[in-house]
Each structure stands twice: as C-alpha cells, then as structure tokens.
Amino acid sequence: MGIGGISMWQLLILLLIVVLVFGTKRLRNMGGDLGAAVKGFRKGMEDVQKEDEKLEPDQIASDPAAKAASAETNEEEAREKELSG
User: Fold this and answer.
1) What is the phi/psi pair of residue 2, to 5°?
2) Nearest Cα to 12, choosing from 39, 32, 3?
3) How far apart (Å, rounded) are the C-alpha atoms in residues 19 and 13?
4) Cα gap 66→51, rounded to integer Å
5) Which of 1, 30, 69, 82 is such that its CA lies 20 to 30 A from the CA of 21?
6) Is this prediction's pTM over 0.70?
C-alpha cells in the first residue's frame, strides 16, 4: 500500500497524467513560484520575530493584542491550577 491507500502504480499514473496535462516547463515554473512564496513567508515571519525582540517589555504590554494574549494565557493557567489542585 502507498500513501492513504493509493498504490505506487496509481501514484505514477497520476504523475504521468499531470505531466502530460501541464507539461514539465509549467510544472517547473509552478514549483519555483511555490518555493519563492514559502521563502517570502519565512522571511516575513523572521522579520516579525526580530521586531518583537526589539520591542521593550513596556511596549509589548501596551499592545492591545499582546494584552489579550496575555489575559488568555493567565486564564488558562488559572484553569489548569484549579484542575490540578
């Protein structure tokens, strides 16, 4: 058995059909575009993390989204303490 109940032969036939329909050049372009999109997303996530590290603790506390996340975390911790204690 292959992935999810699909045999290796079925996967090869599916791959062959995709190559025939789209062609290798278009598949190569789509793969490159997908790779560039993932790379851009990762770079954006790294930039956001770097910006968060640059913020002072009082700046993070004044951020409404950070306050909401902190409040949710505190509520979850209180629930866990009630359940365990």
Assistant:
1) -100, -145
2) 3
3) 10
4) 14
5) 1
6) no
Query: Which pair of tokens denotes residue 35?
Result: 């790779």
The structure tokens 């789209």 sit at: 22
Domain ranges, ordered by start, for the chain: 1-54, 57-85
59, 69, 83, 84 from 75: Cα distances, Å: 22, 10, 12, 14
Q: What are phi and psi of 27, to 5 degrees?
A: -65, -40
Render pLDDT for 10-20 as a digit per residue (tens, 0 to 9).
Answer: 999 999 999 99
HEC secondary structure over the chain? CCHHHCCHHHHHHHHHHHHHHHCHHHHHHHHHHHHHHHHHHHHHHHHHHHHHHHCCHHHHHHCHHHHHHHHHHHHHHHHHHHHHC
